[in-house]
Specification:
Elements: E1 2-6, H1 14-24, E2 30-34, H2 40-52, H3 56-78, H4 83-101, H5 110-117, H6 119-134, E3 139-141, H7 158-172, E4 177-181, E5 184-186, E6 192-194, H8 200-211, E7 215-220, E8 241-243, H9 244-252, H10 263-269, E9 273-277, E10 286-289, E11 297-312, H11 322-332, E12 340-342, E13 346-351, H12 357-364, E14 369-383, H13 392-399, E15 405-410, E16 416-422, H14 426-438
Parallel strand pairs: 1-2, 1-7, 2-4, 3-4, 7-9, 8-10
Antiparallel strand pairs: 5-6, 9-10, 11-13, 11-14, 12-13, 14-16, 15-16
Helix pairs in contact: 1-3, 2-3, 2-5, 3-4, 4-6, 7-8, 8-10, 9-10, 13-14
The structure holds adenosine-5'-diphosphate (ADP), aspartic acid and magnesium ion (MG).
Aspartic acid binds at residues 7-8, 35-36, 41, 120, 182-183, 197-200.
Length: 443
């Protein structure tokens, strides 16, 4: 059995729904995880914002636009296929929108906002399920709210998931195509919640691990993980295969094609993840698994909105315990550190969550002279970089010889070199790296 997850653009129009219906009816038994139609979750966030601010008109107007889009999509999807099935799907979509319509600003709280956000996935799955059945496919629905649950720490409750999913599948009965919602779950209090934006990838990976799937397929709008961010670099190309560790680094450091949390469940269960293109299903895409070609640099990603903090202190010289004190301050303020570089008299760290920065800086100043650089970007170069392989550091540094680099970090893993540059140098740095490392120019 395999898991097939389709993102927002893959179910973005009636035509795409039909493409997905063809792809999932491939003769295998599949659990199909769907995101909301593209743009929907953003609209639902907007509606929530209006309701939270007491602006009912704003909420209603945005909801009406969304409703028009869904009505038009349902009409096009069913065409003249089956008017009874079409009416049923239309009423299921309306039911979801009515939940949002019934929300009142006076009682609107965070739980209500999370409930609003869940409606997109409820609608896309109702549409796909109804369409498949109208086409004569025996698709069965597995309601994600029945089995996807987070614990008191907000982490997925994998044990519950395994048991509850098995129960849902047995309730649904034997079939080849199961449909379920990505992204949405219940929290430890039983309220409707979600796995954070982009979290449908996580749903797919958690389900894959729970059922010990043969493969987890993430279908999107591009033919696999490219060797650089196609939004900022021309002439990128897909990477055939990546080790789980390489994929985790790329996802965490900004390769939007894969949600960072998605890698771990698949890696622990040793299930290959394939990144595939709904618009070009014949492309081989990228396979992520526990092995991958060695001795090569594979891809580059960038993470924005980074703040670098340098603490310089004579007290660090020949002393122990200094780093512990520094790290404890970040820990007390629940602020994760991404990159670290040290010298005998100072340490630089980066954070992307700067909410507690003023308090952190106040405390750090007790230990040394503190300098802060904002609006920085981590560029992460990923591949097989086992330390005895020679030359890859030289290539990376050479490629960036005309870009000011604030920090360089290597040796934390065998899989990446991270460099910190200014925001205004990001696109230049990404392009220089691609030209030098992959397009072999200017050597
Ligand atoms: P979905 O809605 O299917 O989850 P996403 O928008 O989350 O899709 O992810 C796909 C997008 O990720 C691509 O359209 C592309 O612009 C972006 N992206 C960023 N970095 C990369 C990369 N290294 N390789 C491929 N796509 C990338
Ligand atoms: N629909 C959700 C989002 O837009 C989840 C997802 O697409 O993965 O964030
Ligand atoms: Mg995504």
């Amino acid at each position: 059995m395999k898991v097939m997850k389709f993102g927002g653009t893959s179910v973005g129009t009636a035509a795409r729904f039909k493409d997905v219906a063809r792809l999932i009816t491939d003769g295998d038994t599949n659990i199909v995880v769907l995101s909301a139609m593209s743009g929907t979750t953003n609209s639902l966030v907007e509606i929530s914002d209006y309701l939270a601010k007491g602006n009912v008109t704003g909420a209603r107007e945005t909801l009406s636009k969304l409703e028009e889009k869904y009505n038009a999509t349902v009409t096009e999807l069913f065409d003249s296929l089956d008017s009874e099935a079409e009416a049923q799907v239309r009423s299921k979509v309306r039911e979801q929108l009515d939940v949002v319509r019934a929300m009142e600003p006076s009682t609107f709280d965070e739980a209500a906002a999370r409930s609003v956000l869940a409606r997109g996935e409820m609608m896309s799955t109702a549409m796909m399920h109804g369409y498949l059945r109208a086409c004569g496919v025996d698709a069965r629905m597995l309601p994600a709210l029945d089995f996807m649950r987070t614990d008191a720490y907000g982490e997925p409750d994998t044990r519950y998931l395994r048991e509850a999913l098995a129960q849902s599948m047995s309730d649904a009965g034997d079939t080849d195509i199961y449909i379920t919602q990505g992204f949405i779950c219940r929290n430890a209090d039983g309220e409707i919640d979600n796995l954070k934006r982009g979290g449908s990838d996580y749903t797919a990976s958690l389900i894959g691990a729970a059922i010990n799937a043969s493969e987890i397929q993430i279908w999107t709008d591009i033919d696999g993980m490219h060797n650089n961010d196609p939004r900022f670099v021309e002439h990128t190309s897909p990477v055939d295969s990546l080790h789980f560790e390489e994929a985790a680094e790329l996802a965490y450091f900004g390769a939007k094609i894969l949600h960072p949390t998605c890698v771990l469940p698949a890696k622990l269960a040793n299930i290959p993840v394939r990144l595939l293109n709904t618009m070009c299903p014949e492309a081989s895409g990228t396979t992520i698994y526990n092995a991958s070609p060695t001795r090569s640099i594979k891809a580059i990603a960038a993470k924005d909105n980074i703040t670098a903090i340098k603490i310089k202190s004579g007290r660090m010289l020949l002393a122990y315990g200094f780093l512990r004190k520094v790290f404890e301050i970040f820990e007390e303020h629940r602020t994760p550190i991404d990159m670290i570089t040290t010298s005998e008299v100072g340490v630089s760290v980066t954070v992307d969550d700067d909410r507690s920065l003023p308090a952190i800086l106040d405390e750090l100043k007790k230990f040394g002279t503190v300098t802060v650089d904002r609006d920085m970007v981590i560029i992460c170069v990923v591949g097989d970089m086992e330390w005895t392989n020679c030359g890859f550091e030289a290539d990376v540094v050479n490629a960036l010889r005309d870009v000011p680099v604030r920090m360089i970090s290597y040796g934390g893993s065998n899989y990446n070199i991270s460099l910190l540059v200014r925001r205004e140098d990001k696109i230049k740095a990404l392009n220089l790296l691609s030209d030098y490392l992959f397009n072999k120019s200017d050597r």
